[in-house]
Write a structure and sequence with these properties.
The complex is a heterodimer of chains A (266) and B (610). Chain A has 266 residues and is of the alpha/beta class. Chain A is 41% helix and 17% strand. Chain A is built from eleven helices and nine strands. Chain A has a five-stranded parallel beta sheet, sandwiched between helices. A two-stranded antiparallel sheet of chain A has the order 3-4. The termini of chain A are far apart. The mean pLDDT of chain A is 90. Chain B is built from 25 helices and twelve strands. The longest helix of chain B is centred in the C-terminal third of the chain and has 26 residues, at 430-455. In chain B, α5 (91-107) packs antiparallel against α6, α6 (109-126) runs antiparallel to α7 and α10 runs antiparallel to α11. Chain B has 610 residues and is mostly helical. The chains are: A alpha/beta (266), B mainly alpha (610).
Chain lengths: 266, 610
């Protein structure tokens, strides 16, 4: 089958924070499109992978970007030695063969691109391919999931109201401290004590959200820091390279954050 | 720039009739007093600059003439130009002229001339790069905020720039404006260096770090620590003779000393961090104000000390690394004369550092009481209980305690006065008012200079009856005072306008929602406009002759054209471009008296808007 390569065979680790697993499962049962909202690095992509594995469906992920066209999603004719041949795009592939199609950071794509998903996300469940002169009815297993980060985009980069209202939404945030520490331990192999320090550090950076930082340190960043420590780096150096330096280029914020992080270290 | 060029001749300037060069020459022919100086300058500059550079120079000279800079200013600019011509590009000269134009507009020709005469000194110290541009900006700002002060600054520029950094100069100007509180005479005294504070600022240790220099970083550090942005303000610079001023908490404000004397570089920055972290810990973890009740000054000092230790212990439970921040300042040794200040400092260290050995009976008792209370440190009553008992003990030991000279140790801790509600009806016992009286004395000292000077400058104003002092008002913390012209009485009232920082009144948030709902049309309209202009969006350009990527669709069309024997369209690239810039918004709400005026509908202007 064309989408077998997209199947996830081993369980991706995911620590449920609420009823998001049940919500997604219910939405999938009804083939309703799902929107995952939350800050970067909080586990949205991991959650989709986990759900695809749990539901036993292939997962086709597309990272949206500003230069992405509708043709990049739906497909296009390409020249081959034998002539002009139609190639399905990733979205068409998922629609035709029945996969969960995950459009990551959908709001990065231009609005004239995102409207291509509209006929797929209402009762019609079809994908019109104008250039191919074809209307592809969605496979029974097909489902569309999108993610976006409400805090990251500017006021002018937002989903159209007509796009937003087609989705069931699941809101993600940073996990509570104990859960976040457990995730760090599980994903980076550090001990509890270090994980708790990393969570405290993350809170210091999240305090600066809106006061110099667009976003605080993500759970993913903390896992990276934990892995750097496991690889033998001193904690202060690991935190500097995994959190402070990537998160900002402003020297004042860097200095302030580094000092605040010092206050978290025993 | 070309040093080998022949001097241009006044008579054969081959410029268009409208050129600045032509117009300047014509103008100078009519100005007898300036003609020869201009000719000398022009000849000199012609050796060094290209015609287009000379044209730009002529244009700025015309601008100077147009703002009535006067002969002295023009000649000063020409002198500067001649000196710079052989050494520099023309750009700094042109930039200097722009600044002089601004100064002339704000402060007059005399100030502009003085600024130009100060330029060689500034140039020698700052070169011709960004620091010199900042110097000009600072002078421009000074001309706008204190036009009378430009000439005094220029006259004493060598002394004022003796610290040698542009940061120091900017701090000097900012400190002068703040210290004068809008008082013109005081500003002149300050910038003429007839002021003790001004002299100290320019003789300040060049390694010293001021609050202004560290404020931005400090705010972010405290916000990161406690999740709540601090309201930091600078305290006026104190006298060298007085003890180092401590941080002072006033309601939600943390007032920081301008400088921690004797501490330099990174050590000074660490001191600011330690002090601000301590003060904000009070505001985040404490519950104030404490009622003074019948506490004596010594007891108040001890309650403060225990409260400091309690707050720090709580803070270090969350953020253990704060111990490293504060520990270096706890230096009291378990020896020496038994006096109140030393015992208090020793107790502070013993409570901060449980491992520190001090077998003094008073210190041991205080530490034991604090240790017993550790399980309930969340309860602010702990500080009062222990402080009162220890205060009694110290009183019975008959060690001398002078409330007027008492300063909190270690130096990073706040003065403690902001934690108390001394109240208007505080008992008038001499003992009890000592400490509050100390606080008041400090405030009076801060404002006394401006009061006394405001009497002096204008006899006519005095004859008219000097403006009434601002009545004491309990609403909010005063952060600034400004003079204002009283149109009816035709008198300038010093310190008439008072800016107070008041914590926002908490109310039902639905009121805000309702107000927004009433303005729904306006709100939606603004939202549509913002979305409509697609600010910051990059536009994709397909079918381009060149670009960063192939336009696959255009490529396919070209391929098809080739195969069908037609001429393909060569525009097979795509690119993107951003033609808009990001949007910023400023909200200014006019709540002045005139906005109370009623419209025909009976509603006020503000009610109508909101």
């Amino acid at each position: 089958m064309a989408v077998d390569a997209y199947r996830i065979t081993t369980e991706p680790y995911y620590e449920a924070l609420g009823d998001e697993v049940e919500t997604f499962a219910a939405a999938y049962a009804e083939r309703l499109p799902v929107m995952l909202k939350g800050p970067t690095g909080c586990g949205k992509t991991r959650f989709v992978e986990h759900m695809a594995w749990r539901l036993g469906k292939p997962l086709i992920t597309v990272a949206a970007h500003e230069d992405m066209t509708a043709a990049d999603l739906a497909g296009r004719y390409l020249l081959e030695p034998g002539g002009t041949v139609w190639h399905d795009g990733p979205l068409t592939l998922g629609v035709r063969h029945g996969a969960i199609c995950y459009l990551d950071e959908i709001v990065e794509a231009r609005q004239d691109t995102t409207v291509v998903i509209h006929p797929l996300t209402d009762a019609r469940r079809i994908l019109p391919l104008e250039r191919h002169n074809e209307i592809v009815p969605a496979h029974a297993d097909f489902q569309l999931t999108i993610s976006y980060n409400p805090g990251y985009q500017s006021a002018v980069k937002d989903l159209k109201e007509s796009t937003k209202q087609r989705f069931v939404a699941i809101d993600f945030g940073y996990p509570p401290p104990t859960t976040e520490a457990a995730i760090i331990v599980r994903e980076s192999g550090t001990d509890d004590e270090l994980a708790n320090i990393l969570v405290a550090i993350a809170h210091r950076s999240r305090n600066l959200q809106g006061h110099g930082l667009d976003e605080g340190a993500s759970t993913r960043m903390l896992i990276h820091a934990g892995r750097m420590v496991r690889a033998g780096l001193p904690l202060a150096t690991a935190v500097q390279s995994s959190i402070v330096l990537p998160i900002t280029d402003n020297p004042d914020i860097r200095a302030a954050l580094a000092d605040a992080i010092q206050a978290c270290l025993p | 720039m070309n040093a080998a060029k022949q001097p241009a001749n006044l008579q054969v300037v081959a410029s268009a009739d409208e050129s600045a060069t032509r117009r300047l020459h014509l103008l100078m022919r009519q100005r007898e007093t300036l003609r020869s100086a201009f000719r000398t300058t022009w000849d000199e500059l012609s050796h060094h600059f290209e015609p287009n550079e000379l044209e730009a120079w002529a244009a700025v000279v015309l601008r100077l003439a147009n703002v009535n800079a006067g002969p002295a200013c023009l000649i000063a600019y020409w002198d500067v130009s001649k000196v710079s011509a052989g050494r520099e590009e023309i750009a700094p000269l042109l930039a200097a002229a722009q600044s002089v134009v601004e100064i002339c507009r704000s402060a007059g020709a005399q100030a502009a001339t003085a600024a130009l005469r100060a330029l060689p000194v500034a140039g020698r110290i700052f070169g011709s790069g960004p620091p010199l541009a900042r110097w000009w900006r600072a002078m421009e700002a000074l001309s706008r905020q204190a036009p009378e002060s430009v000439a005094p600054v220029a006259d004493r520029i060598a002394e004022i720039l003796s610290p040698g950094t542009i940061d120091a100069f900017e701090n000097f100007v900012a400190s002068g404006l703040r210290a004068a509180s809008g008082n013109k005479a005081r500003r002149i005294a300050f910038f003429s260096l007839d002021d003790d504070l001004a002299r100290r600022l320019i003789t300040r240790d060049p390694g010293a770090v001021t609050f202004l220099e560290t404020e931005v970083e400090l705010k972010m550090f405290i916000t990161a620590l406690w999740g709540r942005p601090p309201a930091l303000r600078a305290l006026p610079v104190d006298s060298n003779q007085a003890p180092q001023r401590r941080v002072s908490i006033a309601g939600p404000l943390i007032r920081m000393p301008e400088v921690f004397r004797g501490v330099r570089g990174d050590a000074a920055r660490a001191m600011f961090r330690a002090a601000a972290a301590h003060a904000q810990a009070h505001l985040v973890l404490g519950r104030y104000p404490f009622p003074v009740g019948t506490l004596k000054p010594l007891q108040i000092a001890l309650v403060n000390l225990i409260e400091d230790a309690r707050i720090e212990a709580l803070a270090m439970r969350h953020l253990p690394g704060l111990r490293r921040l504060w520990a270096p300042y706890h230096v009291a040794l378990p020896s020496g004369v038994i006096a109140a200040p030393t015992l208090l400092a020793r107790l502070a260290r013993a409570l901060f550092d449980p491992a520190h050995a001090d077998d003094d009976s008073f210190v041991t008792k205080g530490r034991a009481m604090f240790d017993i209370a550790r399980p309930r440190l969340d309860d602010p009553a702990v500080s009062r209980e222990i402080g009162m008992l220890l205060g009694n003990d110290l009183g019975q030991m008959r060690v001398q305690f002078n409330a007027k000279t008492h300063v909190v140790e270690p130096v990073y801790r706040d003065d403690g006065l902001g934690l108390w509600d001394f109240g208007e009806n505080a008992p008038l016992s001499g003992d009890i008012i000592e400490l509050p009286a100390e606080a008041v004395r400090i405030e009076q000292q801060d404002t006394s200079d401006s009061d006394s000077i405001s009497d002096e400058p204008d006899q006519q104003q005095a004859a008219l009856g000097r403006a009434r002092p601002v009545a004491p008002d309990p609403r909010g913390t005063v952060v600034a005072r400004y003079p204002e012209w009283d149109r009816e009485h035709r008198v300038e009232r010093p310190e008439w306008t008072v800016v107070r920082e008041v914590a926002a009144h908490l109310d039902d948030p639905r009121l805000v929602e309702q107000a927004l709902d009433r303005a729904a049309v306006l709100r939606n309209r603004i939202g549509q406009l913002v979305r409509g202009v697609r600010i910051g969006r990059r536009s994709r350009l397909n079918h381009q002759h060149e670009g960063h990527d192939l336009d696959l669709d255009a490529l396919l069309d070209a391929g098809i054209a080739l195969r069908t024997g037609q001429e393909p369209d060569p525009r097979v690239f795509r690119s993107s471009t951003s033609v808009h810039r990001d949007l910023s918004a400023l909200l200014l709400i006019d709540v002045s008296e005139s906005t109370r005026d009623q419209l025909g509908s009976g509603a006020t202007i503000l009610e109508w808007v909101f």
